[in-house]
TrEMBL record:
Organism domain of life: Bacteria
Membrane topology: Multi-pass membrane protein
Organism: Ruegeria atlantica
Pfam families in alphabetical order: SURF1
This protein's UniProt keywords: Cell membrane, Membrane, Transmembrane, Transmembrane helix
Protein name: SURF1-like protein
Cell compartment(s), UniProt: Cell membrane; Membrane
Family: Belongs to the SURF1 family.
InterPro entries the record matches: Surf1/Shy1 (IPR002994), Surf1/Surf4 (IPR045214)
Keyword Transmembrane helix: yes
Length: 225
């Protein structure tokens, strides 16, 4: 009986832990869905003028419209687009009346790397963004070939002589550049998969606990006979 009691307590404790982890992931899923809905709402809001003071904390995803001049000179950030393949994001500086910011104009395939692009006066609508793309595995830019491997806003700004403010264009700035607007597709939301994993482990744990209880109960019944 002591062995059975120990197995029962141990099994129920483990089952409780696994179920609680699954429930916690469902709670995290609900929270993440609310966050994503809020971000989507912010991204799709009506554009406003570029704030004088820009903050990542308060202005991330803010939709804005700017009028000014696209400056010559560009940086190419290597990316891959689904169903298209490898190519580059085109990053350029954009001057308004009193300031210069960065603009991510969008995507071109590798074959269009050296194709001349429109510059000069234009109006651009997009969203402010501070991409988190740099980690310890990100290679240094190949300056000679003009190939960067992440949108490192401070270094991009230093290279192009602009403020560390990046506008991701959602309006077209050149017929041969495809805008890649900000969206929530790149924000991970794996909580449902985690919840399924924990609940699956809980089911396996419950079955194994039942099996061990049966194995330990069966001899005691035969001994009584």
């Amino acid at each position: 009986m002591r062995r059975i009691l120990f197995l029962l307590i141990f099994g129920l404790a483990g089952l409780g832990v696994l179920l609680s982890l699954g429930i916690w992931q469902l709670q995290r899923l609900a929270w993440k869905q609310e966050v994503l809905a809020e971000i989507e709402s912010r991204i799709s809001a009506a554009p406003v003028a570029l704030p004088r003071q820009v903050s990542e904390d308060s202005d991330k995803y803010l939709p804005v419209t700017v009028t000014g001049e696209m400056e010559p000179g560009e940086i190419h950030v290597l990316v891959s687009v689904k169903q298209v393949g490898a190519g580059y994001r085109i990053i350029q500086s954009f001057s308004t009346e009193d300031r210069t910011i960065l603009v991510d104009r969008g995507f071109v395939p590798t074959t269009a790397k050296q194709t001349p692009r429109l510059t000069g006066p234009m109006e651009i609508t997009g969203n402010l963004h501070w991409p988190d793309e740099v980690d310890g595995y990100t290679p240094e830019p190949d300056i000679d070939e003009n190939i960067w491997f992440a949108r490192d806003v401070p270094n991009l700004a230093a290279a192009l002589g602009a403020e560390p403010v990046l506008l991701i264009a959602r309006s077209e700035t050149d017929p041969n550049v495809t805008p890649l607007p900000v969206d929530t597709a790149g924000i991970p939301n794996d909580h449902l998969q985690y919840a399924i994993t924990w609940f699956g482990l809980a089911l396996v744990w419950a079955v194994m606990t039942g099996y061990f209880l049966w194995r330990n109960r069966a001899p005691s019944e035969s001994e009584e006979q």
